[in-house]
């Protein structure tokens, strides 16, 4: 049994300039190992980002809403397990 604390990466893009958000998110995703993920925090539904993931990484990612507004969207994005 492991009593270790696993810290999950959280990217809060609400204070990041819009043009820098998607590059940061995709760069973070590219560094994930299969089965790993991170949590994205946003002030609006990041649906356009989901469309980009579907185009760039079809079948290789998970997208799970943990909170869906109206003030905060929290999405867990993960790389598919091998």
The helix content is 25-40%
User: What is the total tally of β strands?
Assistant: 4
- Mean pLDDT, to the nearest integer, reads 92
In percent terms, what proportion of residues is strand?
Answer: 25-35%
Structural class: alpha+beta
How are the secondary structure elements laid out?
Layout: E1 9-12, H1 18-30, E2 37-42, H2 47-56, E3 61-68, E4 73-79
Parallel strand pairs: 1-2
Antiparallel strand pairs: 2-4, 3-4
Write up what this structure looks like.
The protein is about 30% helix and about 30% strand. The chain is of the alpha+beta class and about 80 residues long. A four-stranded mixed beta sheet has the order 1-2-4-3, covered by helices on one side.
Summarize the structure.
The protein is an alpha+beta fold and 82 residues long.
Notable traits:
82 residues, alpha+beta, 4-stranded mixed β-sheet, 4 strands, globular
């Amino acid at each position: 049994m492991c009593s270790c604390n696993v810290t999950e990466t959280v990217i809060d893009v609400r204070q990041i300039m819009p043009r820098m958000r998607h590059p940061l998110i995709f760069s973070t995703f590219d560094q994930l190992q299969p089965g790993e993920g991170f949590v994205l925090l946003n002030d609006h539904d990041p649906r356009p980002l989901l469309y980009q993931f579907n185009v760039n990484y079809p079948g290789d990612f998970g997208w799970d809403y943990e909170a869906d507004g109206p003030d905060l969207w929290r999405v867990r994005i993960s790389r598919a397990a091998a």
